[in-house]
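Ticket #4471: structure output looks truncated?

Reporter: J.K.
Steps to reproduce: submitted the chain below (219 residues) through the standard prediction queue, then opened the result file.
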Amino acid sequence: MKLAGVLFVVLATGVATAQTSAVSQSSYILFSVANPRVEPSQYSLKIREDGTGEYKATYTPSGEDTAAAPVDRAILIHDPVLAEIFNAARKYHFFAIDCHGSQRVAFTGKKTLAYSGPDGSGSCTFNYSHTNGINEAATNLMSVAYTLAIGAQLASEHRYDRLSLDSELEALQEAVAEKRALEIENIAPELTSIVNDSAVMNRARERAQRLLNEASMTR
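Returned output as attached by the reporter:
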């Protein structure tokens, strides 16, 4: 291949890589849920195509007009969850569709899926969707949010109620096994803090360590 041809290929490859990187950085999915019957009563996940993102959650004040502190933390999402939700966004017209199902089902929260990027944008709101792919994307994201909510609960119990940690961690292990909790790596700091605390009962520390081990084995 002549030098000019080589340079063209290199430049073209560089441009394509830069464009892909730009899309990855600027494209994101925003998923929000509002349900006053559960805590947190509102939360959102903003996930960019490179896997970085943020989780925000607010809690309803109790009868004493108090509430758990709002959560605002950085997160990192991996494949296959990451690929599946962005594939769904592009398959279903960037969520710019009527996705709300007409069938009567139990209320599990007002959910909104939105996509924004150089290639398009859109959103849809639903309790339960008539589109299976939309439900699957929402289920994955709710499983991520469940993990993060449990992380906040573990941090609170570690500080104020250590005796509750064992049952909380056992429930989390079951949720991980059933894929109701995803992306456990995001609460590694909370789990590590429990593992390293000799004041926590050994069984709870062992459960936290197993969760950390399982999370590292999946990457």
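Triage note (M.O.): checked the attachment and the full token line is present. Residues 132-160 form the longest helix (29 residues).
Status: closed, working as intended.
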